[in-house]
Amino acid sequence: MRATHFLVILALVGAAVSASPRAVLAQHETASDLVDGERAFRNSCANCHGPDGDLITGIDLGRGQFRRPMTDDDLVRIIRTGIPNTPMPASPMSVQQASTIVAYLRSTAAARRAGSVAGDPARGKAVFDGKGGCARCHRLNGEGSRVGPDLTGIGERRGALELERALVDPGADVDPASRFVQVTLKDGTSVTGRLLGHDTFTLQLLDTRETLRSFEKRDLRAQAFLGSPMPSYRTALTPQELADLVRYLASQAKGR
Amino acid sequence: MVRRVLVAAAVLAAAVTVHGQVTFDRILQADREPQNWLSYSGTPFNQRYSRLTQITPANVGRLQLQWVWQNRSLEKFEATPLVVDGVMYTVQPPNDVVALDAATGRPFWTYSYTPAPEGRPCCGRVNRGVAMLGDTLYMGTIDAHLIAIDARSGQPRWNVVVAKASERYSITHNPLIVKDKVIVGTGGGDGPIRGYIAAFDAKTGREAWRFYTIPGPGEPGNETWAGDSWKTGGVGVWNAGAYDPETNLVFFGTGNPAPDWDGSKRLGDNLYSDSVVALDADTGRLKWYYQFTPHDELDYDATQVPLLADITWQGRPRKVMLWANRNGVMYVLDRVTGEFLKGKPYVKTNWLDGFDAKGRPNRVKFPSPEGTLIHPHVHGGINWAPPAFSPRTGLYYVASWENSGTVAVQGQFPRAASANTRQTAMGQTTLVPFFNNDTEPYGVVRGYDPQTLEAKWEFKMSDITWGGVLATASDLVFSGGREGYFLALDGRTGALLWRASVGGQVNAGAMSYEVRGKQYVAIAAGNALFAYALP
């Protein structure tokens, strides 16, 4: 397959997936259920969880990320009864209403995971470990550097299109939690690393030696956000290698 | 001898009566006893201004933690405590009242209340504090009850249903005491309620009057709601009221009309949503109103704390109300007549381009199916946090959010315009990592000149803030934010004078009091209450 054909197909698949999360339906729900679910989600859940379901630390409802694995029944029960001793309140919804929210969330997560790229995950692993040099910055299933974002389970959090975009244009959409900063101390020393948080007075980062560092801003001469340190793989990999790598990453689920 | 005994007994009785008894006169004249903090923002004027001066700009750097009281709740801790003669009263969310020794933080008693399961406010099972009259505390609950509690024993005296929690009503704010009445408003206005403000007899709990925030058929203003939309138009009341004894008016800000994001079913101005209403304290009759955001489709509740001040306005004394609104505009109103005196954006604001002669905003941005970038964001320039005013510096102190925006889509939850708005979730209790750069939304405390509504100074934080502001007569300003610092600023310059890391988000306003000659400053943060004083 020529590269242009591949990319066009990839783009079409991606567009179909990203245009409507409802393109991928759970087995027993109708599109109408999902519309109801989305509406109920926005009315009842979005105020705290955010319109994309990702505003509570450690939880990303739109990508199927919970504090522990959840069955549909678990989620319906939590929506209806709340979680004691947490801000998650009980709701007077019926089981059916709560189920529409779960169906909507599941469909959204599924849509974000979907995307059938014509790549081979085994060859993708070879690219990851070899030519791509990914582990120099990224950790996967407990191996590799901690400096870049940990890619363990990335296939559950990012769809193929998002992964492909991150590889060819890594600076286009950097997750705020993956930003790189450079701080310059008053003695002229510079430290670069992934920002782990900052406030009015302090800044925390993981430096390129994987050491946790914390600074008082008053001790800094300068601080600056850097662009993504990740190189573009648009030309560094062949289209096939890129597709293989995307497929490999998309296949990553937690616990594997 | 007998006479002496009688005189001594009378003196003793008087002392006992005064101690721990909060008469309405004491509430009105709370400025005369700055050792106490008798209502939510200190006095019915809500200036959140302490006249204590032991802690000064020169010595504030030596403030030390005196005690911490940790609550047993994971909800946001939004209450401002009261302190009456050495006893502190606060609320462990959602609705447990606690009495503490204000000097040590040791508990005297806890009144535990379990709200009905259907009591579930939109935005957190929170409470902002109690009110006190005589020896009774009053608390509104998230299942929309009003409860009177013996301040010495913590035992309930009466418990009345203000509204039905099953119909999505709730109460999250501190009640307002006026004379012999306890006044509360009903929250829940994101749902299909019809909000109201009601006064209850402080002794019996019997309802004395009720003012619906949406006029009924035949009442002026009902015509501002299309069809039957008035029946379920929301307009909750969920923040502190104010009282002016000279005019005998109570003031409350009102919430958004419902449904909040879709105005097509409720065409019209939707009175008295997003307004301040001035009510006769004895009858609840409307004396005047000013609507900040007519026909709101952006969830700009006007549920900020009304702040009353007597200032010189254009060369002559004027009784005004200062109001930094969620809609991004700061207002000066004549509180006697409701006259609009001045309005000016205080954060990035693009939904209006000015006002007509009566102060009606000229709206220029509208939600649309394709999306419209509207400033400020849904959470507003300020949300509900209490501001402060210092009669000494003449400045109006406001903690706000700057530079946030959203794309509002008619009839749907607003879509984020950029990653920036990810940082504006409803406040939580714990610290959260913060990744924004300096061009993205931030929290800021500013001191505004009410004459011009220009900021004389600002103190910028990296993260946004849900915290309020306290001013003191030694020209200090205390505030905090989501990043978990409690800050002391110079009230005249904004210079940072002291900071403490409190390890949790500041979601409340600070207050100050004195016990046995020592001034304390207290702040709720995370899930704990912290008290600071000089060594």
* Strand order within the widest beta sheet of chain B: 1-32-33-34-35
Mean pLDDT of chain B: 93
Order of helices and strands of chain A: HHHHHHEEHHEEEEEH
The total strand number of chain A stands at 7
Approximate strand percentage of chain B: 35-45%
Bulk shape of chain B: globular
Mean pLDDT of chain A: 81
Measured on Cα atoms, how large is the radius of gyration of chain A? 21 Å
Number of helices of chain B: 2
Classification by helices and strands of chain B: mainly beta
Indicate the proportion of strand residues of chain A. 5-15%
Descriptive account of the structure:
The complex is a heterodimer of chains A (256) and B (535). Chain A has 256 residues and is an alpha+beta fold. Chain A has nine helices and seven strands, in the order ααααααββααβββββα. Chain A has helices at residues 3-19, 31-44, 46-49, 72-81, 95-113, 121-129, 154-157, 160-168, 239-250; strands at 139-140, 143-144, 180-185, 190-198, 202-207, 212-216, 220-226. In chain A, helix 4 packs across helix 5 (95-113), helix 6 (121-129) packs across helix 9 and helix 8 (160-168) crosses helix 9 (239-250). Chain A starts with a helix and ends in a 6-residue tail after the last helix. The model of chain A is unreliable at 1-28 (pLDDT under 50). Chain B has 535 residues and is mostly beta strands. Chain B contains two helices and 38 strands. In chain B, strand 17 and strand 18 (286-291) form a beta hairpin. The longest helix of chain B has 17 residues, at 2-18. The chains are: A alpha+beta (256), B mainly beta (535).
